[in-house]
């Protein structure tokens, strides 16, 4: 339970008095707070710096080190304080967690040191408040990536038994893994370069025949260029097919950007082969050759920087969009103004508004070709305003794009948004699982049928026991509250799957319950008070806590006595065993899973406790105390 | 017609103000609004001695109570939402907001929409340290939603539904829709002596004092603090 909420438990219990007149059954007896210990200050000495806090503050989170009896291991008898040999600065946030219920991550702290402190004190990092959680996760991810990078450098690339396809894919993705891959990598790079250079040189005029003007080299040495082109395209095709074969998910590979670039790079050649005969579409065919320049994008497989640039542009899409939009707006405004300003002047180049677009763009980007200039005074005024505003509009989004690029380049993150979403979902699921711990703890305790209250031991054990008890006192009080609610409404809490099962059974059978004494047709009174164990005829009738039988699980009340009874063997009542009266579990400090039961009844009650006004207590417990639970809520 | 003209004038005025604000920038007006919103109610309770006299708690108990109270509500008052949130945390399986609403009204004795520490301590003092009579009085006050001195079947049904909704969905046996109603019938059978359809405070206290179970359960939470 959360910090402040634990302090409100007395209030919630007091408010339960509102249910009492409504209930038809007697209520279970409350767990007793044996020794009314006044709240005391405890001193925590962390490497010399002393922190003081109330004991109850620490006990808010009973499944952490400081809230449980584990801190007794650090108790120093002479100085009467708890000594921890840890970092006092990090301890500040840990202690503040107890005080305020919120865990904060101090930004100057190293992430792994902080993690270690949290692990030492038994606090899960998921509870870090939303204010600091992003920072924490970022730092953690950075650290993890750094570790991974270090590992990869040292890693020997001897991976166990991959088949041929996987090896090939790995070779394609990571050229440094084998020599063959490296050779392949350089060969393809070389051919990409060749192809691009060929495309460029094709258009250079080389030499001139005497009778006509310069011809581009492409037309002069057609065959040579054609052979070159064919060779490159063949290499690219083979490469593409090999990648397609090796890809673990062919469909995803075909959708990826790089493969599309590959296809676009080689397609024009094949289309050209098919369509050489058809004269009509030869114009279109020429246009297709433009796409050959896309081969230069194939270089991005070879260059990390290019990939990062592409990714930056993609992630800055909104800024680029804003730039485009504002530019368009400004262009339209200024073009209109210039057109109307220059309308009067003779032989003006500003023939229409779209014609003025060109002037506006050239002026705003500070190019200033000078092919269109305003002549009127108004035109010149607006022209100068246009050029000034152009500088501003273009300069604004650029720093954002630049900073984005540098951030991504330095951190080298890929698709971190998608990863962050998954992490957030996982974190919420973990916190939800921890929260459901409260309700499951109650159901868990009922299921085990272990009813424990607070230990009442005399003598030397009392000191230890007190602390063990207070850890579960909160829980037992909370469970008692829930038990009272059950009694008031004459219904019990079950967990999801049991409920589903019951629903199923209810629809299958006509009589919904298998419990012999239970019938849903009886009103709430009938169900509640009739549920008694038939195995315990010795139960005194007055004020008895009913032993509830359920078909699926067994709950039982154990009659206990306190005092100096010799410890008898306990037997948990089950369907076949008889309930022993007057049994007591001997509980040593904190290492066994069942805690002691005791009851504030007059001592010296013999095993034949008939006819005595034995107030049996049926109280619940948390069944396990040495399993470190996630601190809930 | 004049009303229409007035409305038109108001609209034009508003539009003109809007345009003016756009031109001159809206920052100045916004900040003033924000500052006002940040001003929250703060409440400091009466002195410890006074509270000690009014309630039946000792100084130490009041101190513990106040520390918990202040931790959860630093401003010194609880409003209904916070109250519901706190109470709901104790009943994770069901919906405790209805019952919390009734509880809040029972604690908020001056009906100003917020519970300060005095109300809180006084209420707890009755519940934990009061006589059985006072506790029963308090319970009656809780059930009597409109505080008219009578508990009608409808009020009781509301309360009962609120209690049952705290159980949630997953119960054994499965909660039926008319279980609260049946429970109310049983309650009225027990309490309504003159069968007039309402339960008065005297009938209530009378009947509760005769019922052993209820009397015993009233003593249940004596040792809570």
Walkthrough of the structure:
The complex is a heterodimer of chains A (633) and B (225). Chain A is mostly helical. Chain A has 22 helices and five strands. Chain A is elongated. In chain A, strands 2-1-4-3 form a four-stranded mixed beta sheet. In chain B, α6 packs across α9 and α9 crosses α10. The longest helix of chain B is centred in the first third of the chain and has 23 residues. About 6% of the residues of chain B have low confidence. Classes of the chains: A mainly alpha (633), B mainly alpha (225). β5 of chain A pairs antiparallel with β4 of chain B, so a sheet runs across the interface.
- H-E order of chain B: HHHHEHHEHHEHEHEHH
Q: What characterizes the major β-sheet of chain A?
A: 4 strands, mixed
Distance between the termini of chain A: 5 Å
Element-by-element helix/strand order of chain A? HHEEHEEHHHHHHHHHHHHHHHHHEHH
Average residue-wise pLDDT of chain B: 82
Report the total helices of chain A.
22
Strand portion of chain B, in percent?
A: 5-15%
Ends distance of chain B: 68 Å
Task: Provide the fold topology.
The complex is a heterodimer of chains A (633) and B (225).
Chain A (H helix, E strand, L loop, with lengths): L2 H5 L1 H7 L25 E6 L2 E6 H4 L16 E2 L4 E4 L3 H13 L10 H10 L9 H25 L9 H10 L5 H24 L14 H4 L1 H25 L3 H6 L1 H19 L6 H9 L13 H12 L1 H26 L10 H12 L12 H19 L1 H15 L4 H33 L12 H29 L2 E2 L2 H13 L15 H7 L103
Parallel strand pairs in A: 1-4
Antiparallel strand pairs in A: 1-2, 3-4
Chain B lengths: L1 H23 L2 H12 L9 H7 L4 H14 L4 E3 H9 L8 H11 L6 E3 H13 L2 H12 L6 E3 H13 L5 E2 L6 H13 L6 E3 H10 L1 H7 L7
Antiparallel strand pairs in B: 1-2, 3-5
Concise summary:
Chain A has 633 residues and is mainly α. Helix content of chain A is 52%, strand content 3%. Chain A is built from 22 helices and five strands.
Keywords:
heterodimer, A: mainly alpha, four-stranded mixed β-sheet, 22 helices, elongated, B: 225 residues, mainly alpha, two-stranded antiparallel ribbon, 6% strand
